Amino acid sequence: MKSASSTPQRRGDILIVDDMPDNLRLLSTMLQTRGYQVRKAINGRIALHGAHLSPPDLILLDINMPDINGYEVCKRLKADDITTEIPIIFISALDQAIDKVRAFEIGAVDYITKPFQVREVLVRVENQLSLHRLQRQLRAKNKQLELEIAVRQRAEDEVRFLLSTTQAIGEASDFDAALEVTLSQVCRLIDWDYSEAWIPDDSGEVLQCSRGWYAREPQLSSFRLASEQLDFKPYQGLAGRIWATQHFEWLEDLCGHDSGFKLEVLMAVGLRTAFGVPIVLDDQVLAVMLFLNQAAVVPDWRLIELVQATATQLGSLIQRKKAEVILRQANHELRRIATLDGLTQIPNRRQFDDYLAKEWRRSRREEQPLSLIVGDVDHFKHYNDTYGHLAGDDCLRSLAQVLQLALRRPGDLVARYGGEEFAAILPNTDREGAACVAEAMREGVQKLAITHEGAGESGIVTISLGVATLQPDCDRHTDQLIGRADRALYIAKAQGRNCVVTDASELSAPDCELEPG
Do 61 and 17 touch, CB atoms closer than 8 A? Predict the structure, then answer.
């Protein structure tokens, strides 16, 4: 068995082009044994086609070939953007200086004369492959450096603004608060006079002025009052057009264009230039931010990009807030699913076990009694066999609702214990109180009057219940409470079903008032 170290590793993809089969065989065998992947072409056309489809790392090219000679193949490879960077080594019997000069002039990186020495070929191939790898790495690093420089230059223009606004947006309690902070931050940074935001109303048919706005001078508050009286439909005014198109817009002359604002108000406060940017999330405009200036200002694309970046931050804030809400809802639903029985939608066995353990510890600390009721639907297998599993499921759902209605305190819990079994945990409840609750459950099930021909004389679905009460302490465990309730249930079944039995004595009709159920 050969060791892993003796297995040749792939070192490069080499295309050999030669019309002589013996040369192809010799070169390919020599290179393959050294770990190179080798492809062969017997003429120039095949070589050009193969190199274009899957560029190799290096080409060994013969000169004297029919149809297309090696020089022409080299020229075409260098003229193709896909193959122009592939290093080409000529291997030829032509050993005149003029032949070598011509080869280097058209782009070859090396020249080997035939007959060749194996070691010479291997060394030259490896040298060119190493050089080619270094050149590719250098080109990649140069491209990366150019990209980083461009990104850095762009970031330098935005960083101060984005840092200040991003922090303010992140600390905002809601979208309206984030809008108000952003309008103020932008106006102060770009040294503009006024800003306001427009948001869709509840119907989504018109834009209304939001509560967020900024004015550098007190007299501009009159413009704010005028804006509060307006609304814009899609394509109406500057805000309406931005809303409909989802694109920014710049007006150098507010008075000479359809801005949607009253001309006399604009002239009174001296506002002349405006631009607006939409805040878009999931292809819907959440708001339109407008910025106005008393000076005439030509479009500033860098400024627009900065404000658009801020709009993106606001959109991200809303997206994050929505994601947080969805996550909370999903977690709540997962917790609900994990603790509820899928059929009856009351707590399941897992929730029962957790709650019993928690209440056991609490009752032990507070030295209070803890009661447990275990109930089993009488003759339920016969009911399922007679009426079908769908009817059985409906029956269990109805019983679960009745059992829940019989609970008296917020801390009481009824769960589906398994199959047709139910169990109720009653904290701070003594034996007599638990027996009353159990009797209320029994009567509630009986009042449902669900027909059951196999139930004997009653002819309806009934339930048997066992009740147990313990004072938790260090020497006792929840299993003892469950065991006592199970034994009481067993006695109830043995005594004819449709009754309540405590762990101490039979209790068919306790002397207590029952809540309606």
Answer: yes
Active-site position among 196, 249, 359, 420: 420
**Sign of the dihedral defined by the CA atoms of residues 324, 329, 330, 334, in that order:** positive
Residues 172 and 168: their CA atoms lie apart, in Å, by: 6
H/E stretch holding 280 reads: strand 273-281
Question: In 54-96, which ranges are continuous DSSP H helix?
Answer: 70-79
Q: Token pair of 300, please?
A: 């500033």
What local confidence, expressed as pLDDT, does residue 155 receive? 66
Is 162 within 8 Å of 310 (Cβ atoms)? yes
258: three-class secondary structure by DSSP: coil
Q: How far apart are CA 238 and CA 275, in angstroms?
A: 8
Comparing CA positions, the residue from 237, 177, 182, 180 lying closest to residue 212 is 180
User: Measuring CA to CA, how many Å separate 186 from each of 317, 332, 437, 454?
Assistant: 17, 39, 66, 79
Q: How sure is the predictor about 154, in pLDDT bands with cuts at 50, 70 and 90?
A: low
420 belongs to the catalytic site: yes
Residue type, 341: D
**Could you state, in order of their start, the residue ranges of all structural domains in the chain?**
11-136, 175-323, 349-502
Q: Which residue type occupies 401?
A: Q
Q: 290 — alpha (psi -120 to 50), left (phi > 0) or beta?
A: beta
Does 366 have pLDDT greater than 90? yes
CA 206 – CA 231 distance, rounded (Å): 6
Q: Which CATH class is domain 175-323?
A: alpha beta
Mean pLDDT to the nearest integer, 404-418: 94
Residue 513 confidence class, pLDDT cut points 50, 70, 90: very low
Residue type for 246, please?
Q
Q: Average of pLDDT values for 408-432?
A: 95
- 11-136: what fold? Rossmann fold (3.40.50)
Q: What is the residue type of 95?
A: D
* SS3 category, 375: strand
What is the H or E stretch that residue 14 is in? strand 13-17
Half-sphere exposure of residue 337: CA atoms within 13 angstroms, side-chain side: 6
- At residue 150, does pLDDT exceed 80? no
The whole-model pTM stands at 0.44
Q: Which fold has domain 349-502?
A: Alpha-Beta Plaits (3.30.70)
In sequence order, what are the residues at sequence separation of 6 or more whose Cβ sits closer than 8 angstroms to the Cβ of residue 373?
423, 424, 426, 434, 437, 438, 441, 465, 466, 467, 485
pLDDT per residue as tens digits for the range 53-101: 999 999 999 999 988 999 999 999 999 999 999 999 999 888 888 988 9
